[in-house]
Write a structure and sequence with these properties.
Keywords: Oxidoreductase
Radius of gyration: 15 Å
EC number: 1.8.4.14
Number of strands: 6
Pfam family, one: GAF_2
Strand order of the largest sheet: 3-2-1-6-5-4
Structural class: alpha+beta
Family: Belongs to the free Met sulfoxide reductase family.
GO molecular function: L-methionine-(R)-S-oxide reductase activity
Strand content: 25-35%
CATH topology: Beta-Lactamase
Number of helices: 4
Largest sheet: 6 strands, antiparallel
Order of helices and strands: HHEEEHEEEH
Helix content: 25-40%
Number of domains: 1
């Protein structure tokens, strides 16, 4: 069984470095996209406080299609450019939104969500999808959280076979 141990008083940069080491260990030896996406989603939900959703949307024909996640029932398809996930897919840039209710075009899959980070999954220049993290707390995610989460996504990409997914 994989145990996750993190001290909540640890500085954020050390916290995310520790998480990244644990994630690399968790995903080590497994290369399957669906398996690693499911494990990664559960890992994030289990290790980060104040979250209500963490998971993947995969790029298919200019829209995002729901993939492995942990949380309440979610939107099934999101067009590129629509909502926070669609904005991340369209721009291929991380979107960190302090208050999703102030984000023009926000899609409220879960009305409890108040802030969000969406990180594009890009492999060899192609958008594979996005990793979406929601919180019921406004301003939950700092710049340090964004950088730490982007490092976790990089570890996911490096640990996963993505060639066949697009």
């Amino acid at each position: 069984m994989f145990e996750i141990e993190i001290d909540s008083n640890t500085p954020l940069n050390v916290f995310y470095d520790t998480l990244n080491s644990q994630l690399a260990s968790l995903l080590g030896g497994e290369r399957d996209l669906i398996c690693n996406a499911a494990q990664f989603s559960a890992f994030v939900m289990q290790t980060l406080p104040e979250l209500n959703w963490a998971g993947f949307y995969f790029a298919r024909d200019k829209q995002l299609v729901l993939g492995p996640y942990v949380g309440k029932v979610a939107c099934t398809r999101i067009p590129f450019g629509r909502g926070v996930c669609g904005a991340a897919a369209h721009s291929q840039q991380t979107q960190r939104v302090e208050d999703v209710h102030a984000f023009e075009g926000h899609i409220a899959c879960d009305s409890a969500s108040a802030s969000e980070v969406v990180i594009p999954i890009v492999y060899e220049g192609d958008l594979i999808g996005v990793f979406d993290i929601d919180s019921p707390k406004v301003r939950r995610f700092s710049q340090a959280d964004q950088e730490g989460l982007e490092a976790l996504v990089t570890t996911f990409i490096e640990s996963t076979d993505l060639e066949w997914s697009f």
